[in-house]
Design brief:
Helices cover 32% and strands 24% of the residues. The chain is an alpha/beta fold. It has two domains: 262 residues, Rossmann fold; 40 residues, no CATH class. α6 runs parallel beside α7.
Length: 333
Protein backbone atom coordinates (compact mmCIF):
# COMPACT_ATOMS: atom_id res chain seq x y z
CA UNK A 1 0.00 0.00 0.00
CA UNK A 2 1.33 3.42 -0.92
CA UNK A 3 1.69 6.21 1.59
CA UNK A 4 -1.03 8.70 0.51
CA UNK A 5 1.04 11.75 1.38
CA UNK A 6 4.04 10.76 -0.72
CA UNK A 7 2.38 9.05 -3.70
CA UNK A 8 2.63 11.12 -6.91
CA UNK A 9 -0.54 9.49 -8.27
CA UNK A 10 -2.44 10.40 -5.10
CA UNK A 11 -1.29 14.00 -5.34
CA UNK A 12 -2.31 14.20 -9.00
CA UNK A 13 -5.72 12.79 -8.24
CA UNK A 14 -6.25 15.25 -5.45
CA UNK A 15 -5.49 18.15 -7.78
CA UNK A 16 -7.91 16.82 -10.38
CA UNK A 17 -10.66 16.23 -7.78
CA UNK A 18 -11.60 12.80 -9.08
CA UNK A 19 -15.07 11.49 -8.37
CA UNK A 20 -14.56 8.12 -6.83
CA UNK A 21 -16.05 4.88 -5.57
CA UNK A 22 -14.86 4.03 -2.07
CA UNK A 23 -14.59 0.50 -0.80
CA UNK A 24 -12.59 -1.35 1.80
CA UNK A 25 -9.57 -2.93 0.13
CA UNK A 26 -9.91 -6.71 -0.07
CA UNK A 27 -13.69 -6.74 0.43
CA UNK A 28 -15.94 -8.29 -2.17
CA UNK A 29 -18.72 -5.75 -1.92
CA UNK A 30 -18.47 -2.09 -2.85
CA UNK A 31 -20.53 0.91 -1.88
CA UNK A 32 -20.98 3.84 -4.20
CA UNK A 33 -19.83 7.09 -2.63
CA UNK A 34 -21.57 10.30 -3.62
CA UNK A 35 -23.57 8.70 -6.45
CA UNK A 36 -27.29 9.27 -6.69
CA UNK A 37 -30.09 8.41 -9.06
CA UNK A 38 -32.37 11.44 -8.90
CA UNK A 39 -35.87 11.36 -10.30
CA UNK A 40 -37.91 14.28 -11.52
CA UNK A 41 -37.51 16.69 -14.38
CA UNK A 42 -35.73 19.97 -14.92
CA UNK A 43 -39.11 21.74 -14.88
CA UNK A 44 -39.44 20.91 -11.18
CA UNK A 45 -37.23 23.91 -10.35
CA UNK A 46 -39.56 26.43 -11.97
CA UNK A 47 -42.16 26.75 -9.26
CA UNK A 48 -44.58 29.67 -9.34
CA UNK A 49 -42.91 31.54 -6.47
CA UNK A 50 -39.43 31.17 -7.96
CA UNK A 51 -40.68 32.24 -11.40
CA UNK A 52 -42.12 35.46 -9.98
CA UNK A 53 -38.74 36.25 -8.41
CA UNK A 54 -36.85 35.47 -11.60
CA UNK A 55 -39.10 37.80 -13.57
CA UNK A 56 -37.87 40.72 -11.48
CA UNK A 57 -34.22 40.06 -12.38
CA UNK A 58 -32.20 41.08 -15.41
CA UNK A 59 -28.91 39.72 -16.71
CA UNK A 60 -26.07 42.22 -16.66
CA UNK A 61 -23.67 42.66 -19.59
CA UNK A 62 -20.14 43.87 -18.91
CA UNK A 63 -19.93 45.57 -22.28
CA UNK A 64 -22.51 47.34 -24.40
CA UNK A 65 -24.63 45.41 -26.86
CA UNK A 66 -23.56 45.95 -30.45
CA UNK A 67 -26.71 44.95 -32.27
CA UNK A 68 -29.92 42.98 -31.92
CA UNK A 69 -33.66 43.25 -31.53
CA UNK A 70 -35.57 45.36 -29.06
CA UNK A 71 -34.75 44.09 -25.60
CA UNK A 72 -33.47 44.95 -22.14
CA UNK A 73 -29.77 45.77 -22.58
CA UNK A 74 -27.86 48.94 -23.44
CA UNK A 75 -26.61 49.32 -26.99
CA UNK A 76 -23.74 51.21 -28.59
CA UNK A 77 -26.30 52.58 -31.04
CA UNK A 78 -28.25 55.71 -30.11
CA UNK A 79 -31.93 55.79 -30.83
CA UNK A 80 -35.19 57.38 -29.78
CA UNK A 81 -35.98 56.06 -26.30
CA UNK A 82 -36.49 57.52 -22.85
CA UNK A 83 -33.04 56.76 -21.36
CA UNK A 84 -30.55 59.61 -21.70
CA UNK A 85 -27.08 58.81 -23.10
CA UNK A 86 -25.31 62.02 -24.20
CA UNK A 87 -25.53 65.43 -25.92
CA UNK A 88 -24.32 66.48 -29.35
CA UNK A 89 -24.52 69.69 -31.33
CA UNK A 90 -27.49 70.28 -33.60
CA UNK A 91 -26.89 70.06 -37.35
CA UNK A 92 -29.41 71.05 -40.02
CA UNK A 93 -31.81 68.20 -40.73
CA UNK A 94 -31.89 66.86 -37.16
CA UNK A 95 -35.25 66.23 -35.52
CA UNK A 96 -36.06 69.49 -33.70
CA UNK A 97 -38.16 67.54 -31.19
CA UNK A 98 -34.92 66.25 -29.68
CA UNK A 99 -33.46 69.74 -29.06
CA UNK A 100 -32.70 70.39 -25.39
CA UNK A 101 -34.36 73.76 -24.83
CA UNK A 102 -32.90 74.10 -21.34
CA UNK A 103 -29.40 73.84 -22.80
CA UNK A 104 -30.33 76.48 -25.38
CA UNK A 105 -31.42 78.87 -22.63
CA UNK A 106 -28.22 78.31 -20.64
CA UNK A 107 -25.64 78.12 -23.42
CA UNK A 108 -27.31 79.97 -26.30
CA UNK A 109 -26.57 77.01 -28.58
CA UNK A 110 -28.55 74.12 -29.97
CA UNK A 111 -27.87 70.66 -28.55
CA UNK A 112 -29.67 67.37 -29.14
CA UNK A 113 -30.31 64.75 -26.50
CA UNK A 114 -29.08 61.31 -27.46
CA UNK A 115 -30.77 58.32 -25.91
CA UNK A 116 -29.80 54.68 -25.86
CA UNK A 117 -31.43 51.91 -27.83
CA UNK A 118 -32.49 48.90 -25.82
CA UNK A 119 -31.52 45.64 -27.47
CA UNK A 120 -31.45 41.95 -26.72
CA UNK A 121 -28.42 39.73 -26.34
CA UNK A 122 -27.92 36.08 -27.05
CA UNK A 123 -27.51 33.97 -23.93
CA UNK A 124 -25.36 30.86 -24.50
CA UNK A 125 -25.90 28.01 -22.03
CA UNK A 126 -22.89 25.68 -22.26
CA UNK A 127 -23.45 22.58 -20.15
CA UNK A 128 -20.74 20.05 -19.28
CA UNK A 129 -22.24 16.57 -19.64
CA UNK A 130 -19.07 14.53 -19.08
CA UNK A 131 -19.19 11.45 -16.87
CA UNK A 132 -17.75 13.26 -13.84
CA UNK A 133 -20.83 15.52 -13.77
CA UNK A 134 -23.08 12.50 -13.11
CA UNK A 135 -21.96 12.26 -9.52
CA UNK A 136 -22.70 13.62 -6.09
CA UNK A 137 -25.59 13.97 -3.68
CA UNK A 138 -27.35 15.93 -5.13
CA UNK A 139 -26.09 15.10 -8.62
CA UNK A 140 -23.95 17.81 -10.20
CA UNK A 141 -25.58 17.24 -13.58
CA UNK A 142 -29.12 17.49 -12.18
CA UNK A 143 -28.17 20.73 -10.43
CA UNK A 144 -26.51 22.06 -13.60
CA UNK A 145 -29.63 21.29 -15.68
CA UNK A 146 -31.84 23.20 -13.25
CA UNK A 147 -29.41 26.09 -13.11
CA UNK A 148 -29.42 26.26 -16.93
CA UNK A 149 -33.24 26.07 -16.96
CA UNK A 150 -33.54 29.01 -14.57
CA UNK A 151 -31.01 31.05 -16.57
CA UNK A 152 -32.88 30.23 -19.77
CA UNK A 153 -36.22 31.27 -18.32
CA UNK A 154 -34.75 34.53 -17.00
CA UNK A 155 -33.33 35.37 -20.42
CA UNK A 156 -36.46 34.42 -22.38
CA UNK A 157 -38.68 36.36 -19.98
CA UNK A 158 -36.53 39.47 -20.57
CA UNK A 159 -36.76 39.22 -24.37
CA UNK A 160 -33.24 37.86 -24.85
CA UNK A 161 -32.37 35.10 -27.30
CA UNK A 162 -31.27 31.75 -25.85
CA UNK A 163 -29.21 28.94 -27.29
CA UNK A 164 -27.62 25.96 -25.54
CA UNK A 165 -25.19 23.12 -26.11
CA UNK A 166 -23.90 20.21 -24.07
CA UNK A 167 -20.31 19.05 -24.36
CA UNK A 168 -17.79 16.54 -23.03
CA UNK A 169 -14.87 15.38 -25.19
CA UNK A 170 -16.48 17.28 -28.05
CA UNK A 171 -19.59 19.34 -28.73
CA UNK A 172 -22.85 17.41 -28.75
CA UNK A 173 -26.43 18.37 -29.57
CA UNK A 174 -27.20 22.07 -29.79
CA UNK A 175 -30.42 23.84 -28.90
CA UNK A 176 -31.10 26.37 -31.68
CA UNK A 177 -31.55 30.06 -30.95
CA UNK A 178 -35.00 30.71 -29.50
CA UNK A 179 -36.86 33.82 -28.39
CA UNK A 180 -39.96 34.36 -26.33
CA UNK A 181 -41.24 33.00 -23.05
CA UNK A 182 -43.15 30.24 -24.82
CA UNK A 183 -39.86 28.61 -25.85
CA UNK A 184 -39.03 27.61 -22.28
CA UNK A 185 -40.78 24.26 -22.71
CA UNK A 186 -38.56 23.35 -25.66
CA UNK A 187 -35.49 24.31 -23.62
CA UNK A 188 -36.63 22.22 -20.65
CA UNK A 189 -37.19 19.23 -22.91
CA UNK A 190 -33.71 19.66 -24.38
CA UNK A 191 -32.10 19.83 -20.94
CA UNK A 192 -33.98 16.76 -19.69
CA UNK A 193 -32.63 14.73 -22.61
CA UNK A 194 -28.96 15.42 -21.84
CA UNK A 195 -27.03 12.34 -20.75
CA UNK A 196 -23.61 12.10 -19.12
CA UNK A 197 -20.69 10.35 -20.75
CA UNK A 198 -17.06 10.71 -21.79
CA UNK A 199 -14.26 12.98 -20.65
CA UNK A 200 -14.15 16.77 -20.88
CA UNK A 201 -11.98 18.48 -23.49
CA UNK A 202 -12.72 22.17 -23.21
CA UNK A 203 -10.52 23.42 -26.00
CA UNK A 204 -12.02 21.20 -28.68
CA UNK A 205 -15.61 21.65 -27.50
CA UNK A 206 -15.43 25.45 -27.38
CA UNK A 207 -13.63 25.61 -30.71
CA UNK A 208 -16.42 23.59 -32.30
CA UNK A 209 -19.04 25.76 -30.64
CA UNK A 210 -17.50 28.94 -31.98
CA UNK A 211 -17.15 27.53 -35.50
CA UNK A 212 -19.74 29.17 -37.69
CA UNK A 213 -21.93 32.13 -36.85
CA UNK A 214 -22.09 32.55 -33.09
CA UNK A 215 -21.64 36.26 -32.48
CA UNK A 216 -21.39 37.87 -29.06
CA UNK A 217 -23.66 37.68 -26.08
CA UNK A 218 -23.31 36.15 -22.63
CA UNK A 219 -21.89 32.63 -22.31
CA UNK A 220 -22.65 30.73 -19.11
CA UNK A 221 -20.18 27.84 -18.82
CA UNK A 222 -21.61 25.33 -16.33
CA UNK A 223 -19.04 22.68 -15.46
CA UNK A 224 -17.02 21.03 -12.70
CA UNK A 225 -13.91 22.03 -14.75
CA UNK A 226 -12.44 18.51 -14.64
CA UNK A 227 -10.83 18.61 -18.08
CA UNK A 228 -8.30 16.48 -19.92
CA UNK A 229 -6.91 19.63 -21.55
CA UNK A 230 -6.52 23.21 -20.36
CA UNK A 231 -10.03 24.50 -19.68
CA UNK A 232 -8.66 28.05 -19.72
CA UNK A 233 -7.96 27.72 -23.46
CA UNK A 234 -11.63 26.97 -24.04
CA UNK A 235 -12.71 30.02 -22.06
CA UNK A 236 -10.20 32.17 -23.97
CA UNK A 237 -11.80 30.98 -27.23
CA UNK A 238 -15.18 32.29 -26.10
CA UNK A 239 -13.63 35.62 -25.16
CA UNK A 240 -12.08 35.94 -28.63
CA UNK A 241 -15.57 35.47 -30.02
CA UNK A 242 -16.56 38.69 -28.25
CA UNK A 243 -18.68 37.11 -25.52
CA UNK A 244 -19.15 38.09 -21.92
CA UNK A 245 -18.32 34.88 -20.05
CA UNK A 246 -19.55 33.62 -16.69
CA UNK A 247 -17.93 30.44 -15.33
CA UNK A 248 -20.22 28.53 -12.96
CA UNK A 249 -18.13 25.80 -11.35
CA UNK A 250 -20.29 23.02 -9.90
CA UNK A 251 -18.90 20.74 -7.20
CA UNK A 252 -20.62 18.10 -5.11
CA UNK A 253 -20.46 18.53 -1.31
CA UNK A 254 -18.68 15.15 -1.14
CA UNK A 255 -15.91 16.52 -3.36
CA UNK A 256 -15.34 19.53 -1.16
CA UNK A 257 -15.55 17.71 2.19
CA UNK A 258 -15.29 13.93 1.64
CA UNK A 259 -16.60 11.78 4.47
CA UNK A 260 -14.41 8.74 3.88
CA UNK A 261 -11.92 6.93 6.04
CA UNK A 262 -9.62 3.91 5.99
CA UNK A 263 -8.27 1.80 3.14
CA UNK A 264 -9.95 2.82 -0.11
CA UNK A 265 -9.82 2.54 -3.86
CA UNK A 266 -10.26 5.72 -5.88
CA UNK A 267 -11.94 5.14 -9.23
CA UNK A 268 -11.69 7.89 -11.83
CA UNK A 269 -15.26 8.19 -13.08
CA UNK A 270 -14.12 9.21 -16.58
CA UNK A 271 -11.00 7.13 -17.28
CA UNK A 272 -11.61 4.14 -15.02
CA UNK A 273 -8.13 4.44 -13.44
CA UNK A 274 -7.91 3.04 -9.90
CA UNK A 275 -5.49 3.85 -7.09
CA UNK A 276 -5.41 2.35 -3.60
CA UNK A 277 -4.92 4.76 -0.72
CA UNK A 278 -5.29 5.11 3.02
CA UNK A 279 -7.39 8.09 4.11
CA UNK A 280 -7.12 9.61 7.55
CA UNK A 281 -7.51 13.04 9.09
CA UNK A 282 -4.21 14.30 7.72
CA UNK A 283 -4.98 13.15 4.17
CA UNK A 284 -8.45 14.74 4.28
CA UNK A 285 -7.00 18.05 5.47
CA UNK A 286 -4.42 17.99 2.68
CA UNK A 287 -7.13 17.19 0.15
CA UNK A 288 -9.43 19.99 1.30
CA UNK A 289 -6.55 22.46 1.23
CA UNK A 290 -5.72 21.50 -2.36
CA UNK A 291 -9.38 21.83 -3.33
CA UNK A 292 -9.42 25.35 -1.90
CA UNK A 293 -6.18 26.22 -3.67
CA UNK A 294 -7.58 24.97 -6.96
CA UNK A 295 -10.81 26.97 -6.61
CA UNK A 296 -8.76 30.03 -5.69
CA UNK A 297 -6.67 29.61 -8.84
CA UNK A 298 -9.87 29.41 -10.92
CA UNK A 299 -11.19 32.59 -9.30
CA UNK A 300 -7.89 34.39 -9.93
CA UNK A 301 -7.91 33.42 -13.61
CA UNK A 302 -11.46 34.70 -13.98
CA UNK A 303 -10.57 37.96 -12.25
CA UNK A 304 -7.55 38.48 -14.53
CA UNK A 305 -9.70 37.72 -17.57
CA UNK A 306 -12.48 40.06 -16.36
CA UNK A 307 -15.11 37.34 -16.44
CA UNK A 308 -17.73 36.33 -13.90
CA UNK A 309 -17.16 33.37 -11.60
CA UNK A 310 -19.26 31.43 -9.12
CA UNK A 311 -18.28 28.22 -7.34
CA UNK A 312 -21.43 26.38 -6.30
CA UNK A 313 -22.02 23.16 -4.44
CA UNK A 314 -24.84 21.08 -5.85
CA UNK A 315 -26.94 21.29 -2.69
CA UNK A 316 -27.26 25.11 -2.74
CA UNK A 317 -30.89 26.27 -3.30
CA UNK A 318 -31.32 28.09 -6.60
CA UNK A 319 -33.10 30.93 -4.82
CA UNK A 320 -29.86 31.55 -2.91
CA UNK A 321 -27.86 31.41 -6.16
CA UNK A 322 -29.99 33.93 -8.07
CA UNK A 323 -31.23 36.24 -5.35
CA UNK A 324 -28.00 36.54 -3.38
CA UNK A 325 -24.82 35.18 -4.93
CA UNK A 326 -25.42 36.24 -8.53
CA UNK A 327 -26.54 39.67 -7.38
CA UNK A 328 -23.44 40.04 -5.22
CA UNK A 329 -21.22 39.20 -8.21
CA UNK A 330 -23.23 41.57 -10.43
CA UNK A 331 -24.27 38.82 -12.81
CA UNK A 332 -27.93 39.78 -12.36
CA UNK A 333 -29.63 42.83 -10.95
Amino acid sequence: MQDPESSPSWSARLRRMLSFRARGVGRSSARAYGVTDESGTTADVLGESFIRRLERLNLMTRGLVLQGLAGEHRSRRHASSTEFADFRKYVPGDDIRRIDWNALARLDALFLKQTEAKEDVTVHLLLDCSQSMDWGKPSKLAFARRLAAALGFLALARFDAVTAACFSDTLHDRFPVARGRGQIFRLLSYLDQTRAGGMTRFREAMERYCTGTVGGGIAFVISDLFSEDDWQDGIARLLREGMDVVVMQILAPQEVHPEVDGELELLDSETGDVVEIIVGNEARRAYEQRVQEWCTSVAEFCQRSEIGYLCLESDVPLEEVFLNRMRLRRIVR
